Amino acid sequence: MKSKIFLAFAVVFMVACQSAKQPQKIDRKAVVTRNNVQVQGFDSLATLSVGNGEFAFTTDLTGLQTFYKEYENGVTLGTQSNWGWHTNPNTEGYDRSETLKYWEVDGRQVPYRHQIKDDPRANAACNYFRENPHRLHLGMIGLVLTDSEGNQATLDDIENATHELDMWTGKITSHFQFDGEPVSVEVYCHQEKDEIAAHIESPLIAKGQLAVSWKFSAGAAKSFHQGYDYDSPEKHQSVLSKVSDNEVLINRTLDNDHYQVAIDWKGDAAIEKTAEHQYELQVKDGSSLEFVCLFAPEIGDEKTADFEATKLNNQQTWERFWQSGGAVDFSACTDPRAKEIERRTILSQYLIKVQSSGSLPPAETGLTYNSWYGKYHLEMHWWHIAHFANWQRPEYMLTQLDYYNELYKNARQTSIDQGYKGVRWQKMLGPDNENSPSSVGSYLIWQQPHIIWFAEQIYQANPTAETLDKYKDLIFATAEFMADFPRWNDEKQQYDLAPPLIPAQEHWPREATYNPPFELAYWYWGLTKAQEWKERLGAEKDSTWEDVRLKLAAPDQANGVYLGMEGATESYNEMELMEDHPVVLGAYGILPDWDKLDPEVMRKTMHTIADRWDWPSTWGWDYPMSAMAAVRLGEPDLALEFLLKDVQKNTYLKNGHNYQSPRLRIYLPGNGGFLATVAMMCAGWEGCETENPGFPKDGKWNVKWENITPVF
Prior knowledge:
four-stranded antiparallel beta sheet; Glycosyltransferase; 30 strands
């Protein structure tokens, strides 16, 4: 039913937003398949994933997860879901009140969940609530390869390996040789079930030298980690029960958390326990092996789909995905950079669909491995999903917007505790909807208007009374906080965004930051849209919102450039201040024009940042954000320079992932930001009259696109 609703929504959106600028019909299959991934041999950073947005399965060069240890320093082999979490018992009885730090604001004490390091008990409580719950690796599925002398295969024994991803059909294949024999593996992830289906062929099967192994682990409460712990078998339980001659059920228990795994196969085979938490499927006769594996909190009456059904499900779903929504074709471009932009564009669409299109805001590393314990960061939510609407796929946003209704109670309580009206959307969250203690994250505010942005995108896609009614309460409660949070400055007759706060450029201190420019511009935009929603519903504008909106402080400037915050005249004079996110550009890149921003001052700011910023210290979404500013300011050459800047954190691996560092080997906000920027480069923004405004008019950029809508 959900897929039918999504499809209907997409059709309405496509009809409503079809652009007249680009009539050429793109051969979408050709564009996608020429960017399919092929990996020769071992590359720890070139693992390949299949998934459905709620669940993902990442594979090594054998097509499964055979050599997971060898990939631990690369893009690791995850089996993760939106429902699979683990919480360590709170044996010390920590209470969230132990994580609070109070700040005086307008004569009242305002609590923030802060990482408290000078009190051992409080610090331990903070660590516990940051670490729990943590996302769980659900189980490693790999080949068991044994040579003719009984020796188990090592990575060096795998010869002539070719590992491939076909994005048009959602298929991973692997072909290699072991012990002188060929092995072929074909893998899919069902698009409506959290299920893996695999077909394996090899003469080794009949010889008893190839089997399939399932290995289960304890959870790992570590910030940047694979999500598994194979050194603590006593911390969890795995119980196998036989369902039929060709199906077993494994019940998994980790403290108070439970889930089940159903394994089904075809042919004369059997599964047996070979070690604690480890099981092996061995074929008794034949040269092929076919199995499916379904993961769920509880299997219940849910049935597995066999390999052929899963294959067909993928072929139909992925073709429908690629044939709908936006498309870009760079094949007629003669600039040598065009091919790489197309590669990143196609692979980013695939990865975001697999990793970030489910019912929860995504983690930075999606469903591959844990960053920040696998929790999600609401300030990053824009970078993950805002592009969906511009690529005419807003259906993938809908369930994640519903999440804000689930979070509402906690967000409202935060505002009440801090003495504000409305709801305050927090930063680092897990499925318990509780904000994690942090000396940085708890003070961020730029996530606050995101829900207004998303709801406005949905309204533009489907401008109906039903849309207005569905999101009005979220928007108005969000705006209530936004109007209450700024403090009146009687001397300057303006409303200030005032401490304690940390802006998106996290360098600035929470106790001394006033009026960061991006947050000011976003506050203005958010309150403006909230008032428009009032008018659409036939209601009067809110007078308090209007007073705050019109009297917000203007971004501070000196020497013809905008400063990182009010009074920070040294913003571009000291190297340590020109690091992290150059988010001042977001005020005129992500966001549209504001009458308190001077485009020429922003232009000078942009060139100062381009020339002087410490670019290696930036993050994956900073390059698309900077490119968006250059596009709006009519400098497409600089936009391309920003978008393809040759620094480590703007690396896009063979598999399309945005590499940051050895700690953060993939970073999906970079992929989502890239797609948002390409949309702007093609379709522009509301009121833009330039065709393909993000590409130079030098005859080298014959970019073809269709079904992409302008950004705001």
